[in-house]
Amino acid sequence: xxxxxxxxxxxxxxxxxxxxxxxxxxxxxxxxxxxxxxxxxxxxxxxxxxxxxxxxxxxxxxxxxxxxxxxxxxxxxxxxxxxxxxxxxxxxxxxxxxxxxxxxxxxxxxxxxxxxxxxxxxxxxxxxxxxxxxxxxxxxxxxxxxxxxxxxxxxxxxxxxxxxxxxxxxxxxxxxxxxxxxxxxxxxxxxxxxxxxxxxxxxxxxxxxxxxxxxxxxxxxxxxxxxxx
Length: 229
Ligand code: SF4
What we know:
Blueprint: H1 2-13, E1 22-23, H2 31-38, H3 48-70, E2 74-80, E3 87-88, E4 90-97, E5 100-109, H4 111-116, H5 122-135, E6 139-146, E7 152-158, H6 161-180, E8 182-183, H7 194-197, H8 202-208, E9 213-214, H9 215-228
Parallel strand pairs: 1-3, 5-6
Antiparallel strand pairs: 2-4, 4-5, 6-7, 8-9
Helix pairs in contact: 1-3, 2-6, 5-6
Bound molecules: iron/sulfur cluster.
The site of iron/sulfur cluster (SF4) has 13 residues, from helix 2, helix 7 and helix 8.
């Protein structure tokens, strides 16, 4: 009854919009996975229970934002990066501390992982580097909160121009594949890369093989596999 209705609500909410630009959260992600998202390739449905767990993170963010406002250090919140051709993104906050600006990105994370973390996750560093680049701010803070124990841990990230430029260059490369309708190669350490473990395109990625290939031809292959069922 209610459970089914709520599950359906979450599944509907999780549907991917038509993609025309990269999200900052795509930074350092598997290019093939991004390609499949742009092309709305058949994906494994994410369990509604998992979606509800992800949603908890939004409430953590709201509370942390409230706390920063209470400290009277917020310069801007939920701020979009300046418009540009290929990338969209919204930083959680820009704050001023001791007369210095910082981009702040909140992350809620499994508590057992957080307690062992001695440095931020690589994809989170990539994301904040892009925020720093687009806002022209030299310092960022990745503020993590443990999902089950509300432990806070923060990491200072200094702007690295060369790294940010490299990330933007990777997006340009992926854009070429998207425009030419050629599927990006899969990750060299497939299927052991952590991204593969959670990837909704695992099944079709295996079917496509390791190298680049035509999306139009591959779509036909998917169709004929579906018809055999
Ligand atoms: S299974 Fe791995 S290599 Fe394939 S699309 Fe997903 S993340 Fe990329």
